[in-house]
Amino acid sequence: MNSEFHRHTALAARTNMEAHTVRLTRRILRTLSSLLFGVLLLSVVMVLVIAHRQNIDSIQQDANLMRQAWQQQQQQMLVDARDYANWGEGWKNLHLTVNKVWAWDEENFGPGLYKEYHYDGVFVVDGNGKTRYAVINGELSDASIESLLGAQSNVLLSAARSLHDAVAGNALVESNPAIVVAAPITPGKGQDLPTMPGPASVMVFVNIFTPQKLQTLGTSLNVIEPRIASDLNDALFEPRLVEPVLQGEPLVLRWQPKNPGFGVMWLMMPLLLFTALAVALVTRRVLRHALHNAVISDRRFEMLAISQRELANSEERFRDLAEAASDWIWEVDAQGRLCYLSSRFAAVTGHEVKSWIGRPLDQLLSHPSHSLVSWLMRQGEEVKHVPLRCQFMSANGERRIGQLMAKAIRRNGLRSGFRGTVSDITHEVDAEARIQFLSRHDMLTGLANRMQLQEYLTAYLECVSADDPLFVISFDLDQFKPINDTWGHAVGDDVLNEISTRLKSLLAPNELAARLGGDAFILLLRESTRAGVEYRCRALQRMVHQPIISGSHQISLTASMGIVSAPQDAAQPEALLRLADIALAQARSAGRDQWVWYSTDMANHLQSKRDMVQAIEGALHNHAFTLHYQPRYQLQSGQLAGAEALIRWQIADDQWITPDRFIPLAEENGLIAAISDWVLMRACADARDWGEQRYVSVNISPVEFRNNDLVQRVAHALEVSGLPATRLELEITENVTFENPDRALEIMQGLRALGVRLTVDDFGTGYAALGYLKTFPFNGLKIDRSWMKEFPESQQAQSVVAGIVGLARAFALTITAEGIETEAQLKALKALSCEEGQGYVLGRPMSLAAFNARLQEEETVN
C-alpha cells in the first residue's frame, strides 16, 4: 500500500513538474513572442522612416544635380562668350563694322554656334542698343534682341557694359526657360587695332531650354521629366528648382520625384508581414507542441550539422575562388610578415609560395616613395579602400607593376594583421602609356601631331620676341601622291617614315617637327636670323634629295617649303599655320623644290583668288557665261564641218575675263564640273539644228577624269538636248592619261561606247608617245597652234607638221590644224592633205547668231 502511494506521489510530482515546465515554457514563449512582435513593429516604423528619408534625400539630390547642371551651363556659356568677345577678329568684324561675310559666310560667327553649341539666339548689339547682327535657330535673321527677350535684354546689356565682363542671367522666352549671356566686345590681345568712340558693342548668346532640351538634360542627370512650372500653384510643390530671372517672377523648374523609399517599402513590408505571420505560426506551434522539446533539440542538432557542412562548403568555395582568380591573395601578421599566399601567386610571379612565407611584405612588394608595411601601419583603424600601385620582380627578373588592395584583420577587437589582393596591371599601364603617347604623336611616324604642335606654339608664343623669334616652316613633298598610286601605300609609308627620321636628325633639342597628315609637315625652328633659317632649308633640301630605298624601288623626291616668322608675321598659332600654308602654296605655284618667305602680297593674292572663285560661282548662278563658236572647215572641199565651242565671260560692255584666268581656278576649287556641264548642255542644244553632218567640239578638262561620272554627264547632256552622239566631239589634252592611265582608258572607252568622237587637243606640246595613240581610243588629233606660227616658212615647223599629219594618217585619225591665220598656211596644209582646219583666216570665234548666219550663207552657196 505504501509502495502504491509513493508511486502515485512520484507520478503526481512528475505531472506537476511537467505542468510547471509547460507553464514556464508557455510564459517564456509568450514573452519572446511579444518581444518579437515588438521588434517587428519597430522594424515597420524604421522602414517607414527610412523610406521617407530616402525620398527626401532623392529630391534633394535631384535638386542639387539640376542646380549644378544649370550653373555649369551658365559657366560654359560665359567661357564661350568671353572667348568670342575678347577676339581681335570679332572686334574688327562685329564692333568696328558688321562683316556678315566674315561672320556668316565664312562661319566665324554663324550657324556653327547653333549646330555645335546649340545656341538658339546669337546677337550683336551696338552702343545705341541697336541689333546689328542676329542668328536665330542657326539662320541669319534681321530680328532685334528685344523681339526675343523683350525688356529683359536692357537689364542684361547694362550689366555687361557696367561690369566690363561677361554676365549671365535667366529669362523666360516664349514660356520656356532660357540662359542668356552677354559680353562686351573687346580687342582682346590684338595690338594696334583701331577703336571707335562710344559704348562697346555687346555679344549676346541665348540658350532656350525647350521641352525637348529639358528632357535631354533630365536624361543625362537621371532626373525624371523636368519641366517648367505650369502655374503659381504648381510652383509651390516639391521637387523644384527656383532660379531668379532678369525681370519678373523667379523661374521654377519641376520634375517627377523618384521616390525610392516606396521601392524599399514594397520590398520590405511583404517580408516583414511574412515574418510576422511566420513568427505567429511558429509560436502557436511551439505552444501546442511544447512537450516535444526533445524532437526540437534533435532538429537543432541536425541544423547545426547542416551549418557545419555549409561552412565547410563555403571554405571550399573560397579556396577554389582564390586559386581561379586572376589576382593573388596575400595575408600578413601584425609585424608585416607574410603568413599566407594563394597558389595563384606562383602562377603570376613564378616564385614558390613556401619560399616567401614568413618574410616581410616589403621584400616582395615595393613602392617608389615609402614602405608598404609602414603605410599599412599608419592607416589607423581602417585601411583606405584605395588601390595602391606597387612593383614586384617576377622569378625571371622582369619588373612588373601591381595594384594592391588591403583590409585589416581583427580578432577579439584587436588588429592582428592585414589581408588583400594584388593585381598584375603591367599590360594595362603599358597600354595607358601607349595611349598617352599616341594622343600627342603621329601614329605612323612618331612625330608630334596637331595637338602637341598646338601646345608647343601656345606655350612658346607667350614669350616670343623679336630678339628670340620662332620660324614656322610648312613643308610637304612634291609629287608624293603618285608614289601611293603607283607603288601602293606601303611604299608611301616607308617614304614618310624615312623623311620623318631625317627631319628629326636635323632638329635641335628645343625645336619640333610635326606631321599633320599625308605628306604635310610643320617644322618649328629656333634661329636668330633669316640667313640661319635659309641655311637650314638648304640642309632640308639636301636631306630630301637623297634617294629613298623601299624594297626594289629607289625613289627621288623634292620638297616645297613656306616660311613664316613669329612675332613678325603673326603671334597666334592658327594665324602662323595659315600664313605658312599660304607661303607653301606660293612655293608650289612657283615651280616646287624651293622655299618661299611669307609676305603680305601673298595674302592679298589669295584673297583675289577667293574673290574670283566667288565671282565664278555667281556667274554660274546668274547664267553670266556665254558660248562663242569658231568654225572648222574641211580643207580639201572647203565645206563647213562644224565648230569648236569656246566659253566667254563678259563682266562689262567692253570688259571680258579670258578662260585662262578663270578655268584654272575652277579646276582647283571643284567648279569645273559645273562649268563643263553647262557648256555641254548649251553646246549640244545649240548644235542640234546645224544639220545632220556638222558637229560641235567641246574641251574637257583633265581634272574631270579624276571622277567616274563623266560618261553619265555626257550621256545626260545628249539625252536632254537630243543631239546625236556622233555629232559631239570632245577635245582632250595629252596629259590626261599621266595621273591614272587605267581609269582614263576606262572613261574614254565609256565615251566611245556612247558614240562620241574623241580628239587629242594641242598635240605636239606634251610628252605623248606612239603607244599613247595606239592605246587610247581617239578619233582624231589637233596640231597645236604653236607650230603654225613659223609654218610654212620654217623648215623645222614644216617637217614637224608633215610628220604629225603622216602620224595621224598612220593611225587612221582625223587631223585638224588650229591657228591658221594666213593664206600661205592654208595652202601648205592643203598640200599636206590635212583634213580639217580652223583659224582667223577661216573664221574668228563668233556668237551663236553670227554662226547661224554663216550656216545660212554656206547653205545658200551650196
TrEMBL record:
Record domain GGDEF: where: 468-600
A Pfam family reported for this protein in Swiss-Prot or TrEMBL: GGDEF
PROSITE patterns named in the record: EAL, GGDEF, PAS
Record keywords: Membrane, Transmembrane, Transmembrane helix
All residue ranges annotated as the EAL domain in the record: 609-859
Domain PAS positions: 314-369
Stretches that traverse the bilayer: 32-51, 263-282
Protein name as catalogued: EAL domain-containing protein
Provenance organism: Pantoea leporis
